[in-house]
Amino acid sequence: MNFVLHGSSIGSGITIGHAHLVSSARLDVAHYEIPAQAVQAEIFRFDAGIARAKHELALLAQQIPADAPAEFGAFVNLHRMILEDSSLSHAPRELIRERKCNAEWALVQQMETLVEQFEQAEDAYLRERKADIEQVVERVLKALMGGKAPAEPQPSEEHNLIVVAHDLSPADMLLFKRHEFGGFVTDAGGVTSHTAILARSLDIPALVGLHHARGMIREGELLIVDGIQGVLVVDPDPLVLAEYQQRQSQHQQERKKLRRLKSTPAATLEGTAVELFANIELPQDLEQVHEAGAQGVGLFRTEFLFMNRKDLPGEEEQFEAYREVAKALRGKPVVIRTLDVGADKGLSGHGEPMPNPALGLRAIRFCLAEPHMFLEQLRAILRASHHGSVRILLPMVAHAHEVDQALGLIRQARRQLEDRGEPYDRDIQVGGMIEIPAAALSLPMFMKRLDFLSLGTNDLIQYTLAIDRTDDAVAHLYDPLHPAVLHLVAHVIQSATRGGVPVAVCGEMAGDLSLTRLLLGFGLRNFSMHPAQLPAIKERVLGTSLAAVQPLAQKVLRWGDPAKTRELLAKLNA
Ligand code: PEP
Ligand code: MG
């Protein structure tokens, strides 16, 4: 039967394939009475189910691929925390005891109580967290029934399969990372659900919030997922199928066309050059940088070299990594950011837990407190500068004395290399990240001391709006279009440009296609982003008239009103 369902799109593009149904254990839960003498054994069975689910999640946490988006780990951890909570791991024991019911039934009853509480929450984000509880419960149910973890995928012809599920847990999404499904659709989930956040990073067509798809679709049925319009077509007739095949190939052509822009210089319609750089975490990311045709690396987040290990990389190991990047870029610049640890990026076994890590000893503060470690990194970067075009970037500066101290340590590292007779680039440039509102508002003292600036909008938003980047409960308040954020961003771009100090944006705002013209209108000419985002941003730059966008961008600043900002942004992007 041919029909259409509407949902919210969370992954772009169109995919055509056959339905692969993922079953929901919750639908099959039996309810039966337990004889009084068997109650204790039932409680043991319940505990064993919880223990098995915990074990599965612990294994998943260990198996997270190194290249998996950071969110995967966070979500697996959230599910582990839910499982640890006594409202889920202990309350059902009481129900088994009081009502003499089977473990599965007790668990589902308790889940329903919890879900109801979450549904009543005013906050949309919290309401969506009920899906996480359901996913954890499904895992325990499967464990109780002796089954495998939910949504274990079939390995055959994956690119032709579209997963159809009531909901998908982040752990299921981990499996997606290892497989190559064509797309997925779910009944549950909103655009801010964990599944949605993860799906975006996987870049496959996907729809959530279809409500009844799981019950209406049969295994193997032909499906079209239209991630552009948010539509699912089930069992399409030949005419509709032919139309979508054409649209799909058009979309693929557009992607290919974007790849052809690889060596086209990025410039606006007036011919103003715009520099597009890539952000990397490890030297292995360089392949993507080359593929994207980036003009260099605008942000090398070196802290990833220091993570997931007991020891820390010494000068030699760091030097090898930085040299590899500098050499591979063959003269194109690489901006190496000094260690930005602390907050959510802790070093194993290093330092005491902080009462408020985002406001604690992180980034440059940490480095200045550990001068021996900092000098080691500075020597490694300086040595690499002999093998390519290397710049140093200091993260999270807020005080002039931090920059002065860091520059003093750079001078000390240079002297140490000179004493050793080791070569380095004597004209190496040193820049600072503007990611604390205090720095944005006292720009002259940084412009005076530094060769260039880079706007870290991720942290700038975190600190301007007082929301912890890592805290799910306030994620919905993370708003790049907040008037205060836009004012700070525009102020930094315009003041630095007027003062002749090169300025870039290297936070997520740089790779957000909807913001490209606004940033160009503010005067930004240097963007650094994830390499996969670069071709589309370049296309947007090529189709932008500065004369048209500048007055609109100024209007956004003048109005300072969210509704008007959205209206003007729509005009900018028309
Ligand atoms: C930023 O804060 O915008 C940034 C680029 O740095 P990170 O995301 O690594 O904190
Ligand atoms: Mg930052």
Tell me what portion of residues adopts beta-strand conformation.
Answer: 5-15%
Architecture (CATH level 2) name of the largest domain: Alpha-Beta Barrel
**Counted beta strands:** 16
- List the domain count as a whole number: 3
Provide a count of the helices: 24
Q: Please state the overall shape, judged from the principal axes of the Cα atoms.
A: globular
What is the assigned CATH homologous superfamily of the largest domain?
Phosphoenolpyruvate-binding domains
Ions, cofactors, ligands: which are bound?
A: phosphoenolpyruvate, magnesium ion
**Separation of the first and last Cα atoms:** 38 Å
Q: What is the residue-averaged pLDDT?
A: 87
- Taking all Cα atoms into account, the compactness measure Rg is 26 Å
